Description:
Layout: H1 2-18, H2 21-33, H3 39-63, H4 67-74, H5 77-110, H6 114-135, H7 137-145
Amino acid sequence: MRTFFRYAGPGWLMSLAYLDPGNLEADLQSGVYTGFQLSWVMLLAHAVGLLLQCLSARLGFVTGKSLAQHCRQGYGPRTGTILWILTEIAIVGSDIQEVLGSAVAFRLLFGIPLWMGCVITAADTFTFLAAQYLHGTRVLEGFVVS
C-alpha cells in the first residue's frame, strides 16, 4: 500500500486539476445557458480528456518518461518549440480563469477590489511553490489532496 501511495501522488493532483468542482460547475452553467442541448459535448470532452490522461499515464509508467519528453524526442527542435509555446498558452488560458475566479470570490465575500484579489491569489500560488521547493512535492500533494 505504501508503494501505491508513493506513485499515486501526481495522479491524484492531475485528477483534481482536471475534474475539479469549478470546472464541472462551469460546464453545468453552460448547460443551463444552452438548455442542456450541448451537454453531450461536455460529456464527450471529459471522456476524451480522461482517456488521454490515462494513455499519458500509461506511457509514462511503461517508458519512465513524461509526455513532454516523448514529444521532445519524437519531434524536431522547431516542432518541439511550437508545442511548448502552445502548451504554455493553454496553461496561461486555463490559469487566468482561476485567478479571476478567485479575485471575484474575494470581491463577493470580503469586498476586496479585483486587483487585490489577483495579488492575493498570486501570493498564494508563490507560497505553495515555495513550500514545494522547501519541503518537497509530497508535502504539497498531501495538502492538496487533504
